[in-house]
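ok posting inputs for the calcium ion job
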Amino acid sequence: MILDLINICKKGGEIIKDNFDKKLDVNKKSTIDLVTDVDYFVEKVVKEELNKQFPSIEIIAEESALDNIEKEKPVFYLDPIDGTTNFVHGFPFVAVSLAYYVKNSAEIGMVYNPIMEELFTAEKSKGAFLNGKAIKVSSTGKMINSLIGTGFPYSIVESENNEIIIQRLRNILENSRGVRRAGSAALDLCYTAKGVFDGYYESGLNPWDVAAGKIILEEAGGCVSSLGGGEYDFSESWIVGSNGLIHDALINKINIS
Ligand code: IPD
Ligand code: CA
Ligand code: CA
Ligand code: CA
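and the output
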């Protein structure tokens, strides 16, 4: 199954690559939340292929998400372009994110950046790979030596109460080597899996943003949890991922009292 999914994912990636420097039809879902004709087209093509090859498996995809899908059944989570803002501005951190879950548990995850030609893959209990080579998390043991990835919800420009996000960011900035906001939650998790980031945290994400990256990070030896340190499920508002070694310290620094 994984090879078929990789081929499907690459088909979506080719469309992103072909349109990367082209003029786009850009619309707004809200003030800074963008969507392009390419997001819709990639989603359409990938869904058609999935439906053709796996007709009995439901698909939860960003641009056509339905609320009434029974998630106990096998399901694909698809983000056709994770990093739409990057895509619109020509910043090459964009990816197709595809995951296969059974009974709320990840079986397969893949994140494909066609611009940087990086394909991250993972299968349950089989490890994580970048372009076929095994990857693992960093060995950084101290928060102050760590590079942390993060992101912010689009609603930040409309909300009057962003204090918690700013305070948490400030606390991480003051207690780490640096913070990066690269603009793709799926790739942020993969870059933690690859050992580039030592940790990552964000709030307000959807299942299609993190479903694939979560299994890739876990299979690379990392840790993914809620802000309380317990199992992360898609209903949690905050996600924390790390190399495992700095996990408690990261949670501790995010959780300001
Ligand atoms: C977004 C990206 C971004 C994150 C946003 C997401 P999209 O997804 O993952 O890094 O900070 O919250 O919504 O809209 O580009 O698919
Ligand atoms: Ca996304
Ligand atoms: Ca998207
Ligand atoms: Ca989006």
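notes: The chain has two domains: 2-134, 143-254. The two ends are 46 Å apart (CA to CA).
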